[in-house]
Amino acid sequence: MKFGGLWAPMLCVLLAVACRINSPSPEDKASQTKTDSLEHCCGDVPSRPGGGSDGQPWTGSVQDQGTGGMVLVPGGSFTMGASDPHAYPDEYPPHPVTVHAFWLDKHEVTNAQFAEFVAATGYVTTAERPIDWDEMAKNAPPGTPRPPEEMLQPGALVFRQTRGAVPLQDHTRWWEWVPGANWRHPEGPGSSVQGREQHPVVQVSWDDAQAYAAWAGKRLPTEAEWEWAARGGIEAAAYPWGSEGLTQGQPKANYWEGDFPYRNSEEDGYTLLAPVGRYAPNGYGLHDMAGNVWEWCQDWYHPEYYQQVSAGVINPRGPARGYDPAEPLLPKRILRGGSFLCNDAYCAGYRVAARMKSSPDSGLQHSGFRCARSAEPKSSGGGS
Ligand SMILES: [Ca+2]
Ligand SMILES: [Ca+2]
Prior knowledge:
Elements: H1 7-14, H2 16-22, H3 26-29, H4 39-43, E1 70-73, E2 76-80, E3 95-99, E4 102-105, H5 111-121, H6 133-137, E5 155-159, E6 175-179, H7 206-215, H8 223-231, E7 258-259, E8 263-264, E9 294-300, H9 305-308, E10 313-314, E11 333-336, E12 355-358, E13 367-368, E14 372-374
Parallel strand pairs: 3-10, 9-13
Antiparallel strand pairs: 1-4, 2-3, 4-14, 5-6, 7-8, 9-11, 11-12
The structure holds calcium ion (2 copies).
């Protein structure tokens, strides 16, 4: 990647004004948005080109961490995709999939773990790299003005709780481009991860996640592996714990309780991120497969992939190329599991079948990852 890698989310912010100008009134569209991905606003702009990720394999040192902190997820067959009435079109059709046994981190990669990687390798995340507007402009709609210099500084998107109700299709109401925001300073300059060593690392791109995984002798899970693991051995349920609603009984996950994005009742104990493993694990011993942070998967995103994949496929690895009709020139990777910003009235991303996508160079305050490892390299899917 020739430039900072943050152009995708940054461009969202830059184009927000155009979205507002060209879109129906917020009131007209307020009920249309159900996801907390960044695509909706930018999806109105058809000329964003693809790429933005270097996609280069890790060539740095490797510190093989074995299977410590991981659980062996058994192999098996299941019905992947829509399994509850709230399913989105890209979760259809439900289809039979077989996944071989594999190892998966018990919890999301933490700040402490990521700090160890950075200390060992000197790795610089995408959010910390400089931005070249001349390069970014090639991917912007014609006539996009050069943004202010302060917006061309390395940075990332930070969530800002609003003071009151806002139109839910306008992500710029709660996402703010903050120069200096990165994994070390998740909310921008002045914030730090000190005292939050056991929180999941955030503001990391798919590229960053790939690099960490390769350094650790691991890989990212495929989307099929992730969903199989999230289901925890329970057939046809909406959540990792079964079918009981998220708001019923004891807190089950870190999500947004109350009215998004302005009132959080903290019934699960956290307004923003929670330390990993704070909630009960699912049937495979995996924590936070619902909520806390979205988790990068290996696969490219294509909304019709489930229609195209062969019935009974073994260890599917996703489409050969990413495609999002909202931004057809911008390939995107899969994220799974929802985040602390999800609730039933907004995106319900913590359903086991829910799919989210973003460009591989995007880092966000609500996105992280966990790693997988093939149990039997010759037979387990996903590669490494
Ligand atoms: Ca919460
Ligand atoms: Ca999660």
